[in-house]
Write a structure and sequence with these properties.
The chain has 213 residues and is α/β, with parallel strands linked by helices. It starts with 5 loop residues before the first strand and ends in an 8-residue tail after the last helix. The protein contains 8 helices and 5 strands; from the N terminus they run E-H-E-H-H-E-H-H-E-H-H-E-H.
Length: 213
Amino acid sequence: MGRGRFITIEGPEGAGKTTQAGVIAAALRALGSEVVVTREPGGTPLGDAIRALLLGPGGEAISHESESLLFAAARAQHVRDVIGPALAGGRDVVCDRFSDSSMAYQGGGLGLDTMALEAIQRFAIGDVRPDLKLLLDLPVEAGLARRMREGEQVNHVDRRSVAFHRRVRDMYLRLVSESPSTWVVIDASRPVGEVSEAVHRLVTGRTWSDAPS
């Protein structure tokens, strides 16, 4: 049994990552794959606890450095308990956010040292790397408007300044430009049905033997 495929979905707020994770999973299952769909922070009891701590009431009081380390701790547990075993067992994994989110949000958005963040991510994830990174990209104002309509799901990160969210998006685009072979960018400003169609075509039409590992 070969290693499963690892697909991560990234993007600024309001990009529709959760919806498109479902589209990808359905497309992979139609191709005969067993699929694990997960998210970050989360995916494990520790990850869910850290998610509640970081994104719940009071999370805004956590220092930026502590925030980055807590995300990494959740990710390390996620890789060890969920992602790594699934891939080793031949299952495909679709993950809503992964290490690039830390680079975008803590590095780009918060301005933390990117070399330090890269070292932390390498320590957290070991040799696990995505075969495909999907960036759902859209203008910051459009994404935030979508997000703010979600009511109780809105958290303090969503409420950070527009400038913060612009830096996040800029960092995502920088990551794509630095490693274009590992990324596919999809315009997420379109109606959700059009985005889903584009994502489905990408997954079903991709020559996976050529995917980076």
